[in-house]
Amino acid sequence: MFLKNNKAKVGRNDPCPCGSGLKYKKCCLGKKFPKSDSLKALYLKRYNIRLKENKDIEGIRMAGRLVLDTLDLVEEKIRPGVSTDEINTLVHEFTIKNGATPAPLNYRGFPKSVCVSVNEVVCHGIPGQRILNDGDIVNVDVTSILNGYFADSNKTFFVGTPGLDARKIVKVARECLKLGTAKVRPGNTIGDIGWAIQRYAEGQGCSVVREFVGHGVGFEFHEAPQVPHYGRKREGIGLVPGMVFTIEPMINLGEKNLRVLKDKWTAVTADGSLSAQFEQTILVTEDGFESLTPFE
Ligand code: MF3
Ligand code: CO
Ligand code: CO
To answer: Residues of 238-256 as b/e, b for ≥16 C-beta within 10 angstroms?
Structure first.
């Protein structure tokens, strides 16, 4: 989703978000803590974050299963000569057939049912007449609404035989999602996630896109909080059980800057370098995380 300016942070010396009145570092920082009704009310009031209950989590999990099945179907179809519009048709029809709705269609004026982003396209590619060529990389970002619940996941696929640059950027982006996700547990913060991603990506000589971030998801397409894929350890909102958000790092082979095309959606790297992305919908559990769109 689009980055909005938002300065909510829990510092070590701030009051603990659990409402105890103690400093964060003396209380919940680094500790497990329960998803109490008061925590739910506090996260809503303080951050506009809607913590999920078990029945909500089961609903998002079911939507997530459908999203993964859709991505598997797309993977089978991808080969040189296929147009991005054919991927849209496949996703649209499979989603409807399964009693769900494609969330992108007409979302803020987006004209198609899925985002398909080829090579230098960072995200929000609009399916159309573009034909996939041997050696391309293509990201397919699927969000489905099933029984009122949203799940959001994407993967970057190779078309035919990848070159060295394609292999590198896809490998780094996949690893970034994994390292960011590994930071998800109660007591860690949103900044810990971005820090882990940024450190690895830049260490590999790649860059992290700033303009688009992960986001809360489940009741709606884009909810609070925002989840940047860069940042500092121990900064940002504290993670608590029942939070559900995406992690979806967009990683560029060259510079981090991007521009948006005249269609007002398609974001491309400013330097024309390759960009790759992986996304999962992640639940914070009592002792870590569970992916509600589990792949790998
Ligand atoms: N699925 C994208 C995300 O992860 C959002 C796409 S918005 C759309 O945040 F309108 F382009 F579909
Ligand atoms: Co998303
Ligand atoms: Co998405």
So the answer is: bbbbbbbbbbbbbbbbbeb
